[in-house]
Amino acid sequence: MHAQRQKIMWSPLLIHLLFIGITLSMLIPFLIVVIISLSDEQSILHHGFRIIPDKFTLLSYTYFLKTPDTILNAYGVTITVAIVGTLTSLILTSTLGYTLSRRDYGLQRVTSFYVFFTMLFNGGLVPFYILMTQVLHLKDTIWALIVPGLLSPFYVLIMKGFMAKIPIEIIESAKMEGASEWRIYAQLILPLSKPALATLGLFILFNFWNEWFNALLFINNEKLVPLQLLLVRALSSLDIITSRPEFLQAGINLDMSQFPKTSAKFAVVVLSAGPMLLVFPFFQRFFVQGLTIGAIKG
Amino acid sequence: MAYIPMFGVIVAFKNYRYDKGILGSDWIGFKNFEFLFKSETAFRITRNTVLYNLGYMAVTTICALAVAILLNEISKKWLKIYQTSMILPFFLSWVVVSYITNAFLDHQNGFLNGWLAAMGFEKVQWYFNAKYWPFILNIVHLWKAIGFSALVYYAGILGIDAELYEAARIDGAKRWQMVTNITIPQLTPLIIILLILSIGNMFRGDFGLHFFIPNNSGMTYSTTDIIDTYIYRALSEVGDISMASAVGLYQSFVGFVLVVTANYTVRKINDENSLF
């Protein structure tokens, strides 16, 4: 009896300790990035990164505030891509998912397989590159960042799985009342699919926000560089940020030899990842709900 | 429509030249493939891709399952905090994660070398040493993926009929017995479906993970290079379109065969668990 009671007392505590450990290992890296972006360059040069640096400074952020063009431009590109992309993608995913979910649609099996097959087999990077540059001529346009992410077969299947659980009787009775197919979709199906739309919407939004691969392949135009590509380029050098003409002009009253190279890089990380991480908690309720419903069936 | 890009696949069988275009270039049959498989590269990138994917699959599945089962044992209030913090890394891009990794691994300034030095050990040149990378990449991958995988399994656990646990409790089952006799068997279909999906992707590596985390450092290619990073380099640095295309086709073809075989095997064993 005694041993039994001890077990009941101890195991939740152990589980909590374990989870606190995991939580810390998840959050500390974020904290570290913020701290480095606030560290004094001289302190980094002498002692390396430190959890508590000798000197905190806002210098790397003030540089970006004084010459905000590069960052603001990148924000503009990223936000445009994220909003246009997410809305269009949600419309496409939900219409296709809905069509596939209708059991009274004659070609359901064939179309489903057609969508699903793209998940299994594709030509790879080269045909994709040729298609984008030579067939669609999207190189150096903002569409190069939007179009490839518009339709993911995996999300279509999740959407289909969710919508297939809406009883077909609802659709049939709406039809009896004389509702058109489009009206059924817009006024019945979409409101009923809110959890799935919110979940997939969040995923798609993050995909567009974090998009760097297509930018790396297709974007050379300085005006179209999204945040993530700015980060990719800053990985090798900060020139992309410091060599812009605006920066050099502003450099008259900024001492470029004092430019906080390391902490500036991490400041860009904070600026690019920060907004999404702030958005995430507000979506989390839908996210967990949507996934819980969608994942059970798999 | 979706298969129009497939047209480009024929480049793999040609000696592609920019001036002649796709249709104008000369056919050379399987020469590109022959060249690839005669070099050591094919073996190295295939081995790396497959082994890393197997590693990620095993490590993430086991850890995420354990986390999901433990999440089910604690109160809802704490659950939210733990879950939120665990999923956060999932929403970062690999570029951002590579900066974080760099904060730890940087030769000069990194935390790890700082701690090693403080404890009196030699500093390690992480980005020049191939042997550390299997561990580093697995840890980084786990860090980013565990929250999401755990959530998927946790959702699966929530879907298990509560009556099963009720009955077990009446029969006097302990918590651990419930886990092994109810939770895990009930989750098996979900685990298998996810495994089939990842087996199909076994030839498709995570480009971002293998390109940015090792900083595209040439010294570590022997243990970090995968098919995807190889294709990218063949395309962007060497400019060999036909070769890159051949590798891409090889990758897709084997991946396709793999997923069909995996699904077939599962259907043989248990029809209910198969994907299609």
UniProtKB/TrEMBL annotation, chain A:
It comes from the Bacteria. CDD domains: TM_PBP2. Residues 75-280 form the ABC transmembrane type-1 domain. PROSITE patterns: ABC_TM1. It is a multi-pass membrane protein. The keyword Cell division does not apply. GO terms for biological process: transmembrane transport. Belongs to the binding-protein-dependent transport system permease family. PANTHER family: ABC TRANSPORTER PERMEASE PROTEIN MG189-RELATED-RELATED, POLYGALACTURONAN_RHAMNOGALACTURONAN TRANSPORT SYSTEM PERMEASE PROTEIN YTCP. This is Carbohydrate ABC transporter permease.
From TrEMBL, chain B:
SUPFAM superfamilies: MetI-like. Its main location: membrane. GO terms for biological process: transmembrane transport. Pfam families: BPD_transp_1. The keyword Transmembrane helix applies. InterPro entries: MetI-like (IPR000515), MetI-like_sf (IPR035906), UgpAE/MalFG_permease (IPR050809). Gene3D superfamilies: MetI-like. Keywords: Cell membrane, Membrane, Transmembrane, Transmembrane helix, Transport. It comes from the Bacteria. Residues 46-262 form the ABC transmembrane type-1 domain. The keyword Transmembrane helix applies. The chain crosses the membrane at residues 54-74, 86-105, 132-157, 178-199, 248-266. It is a multi-pass membrane protein. One of its GO terms (cellular component) is plasma membrane. It is found in: Cell membrane. Belongs to the binding-protein-dependent transport system permease family. This is ABC transporter permease subunit. It comes from Paenibacillus aurantius. The lineage of its organism: Bacteria, Bacillati, Bacillota, Bacilli, Bacillales.
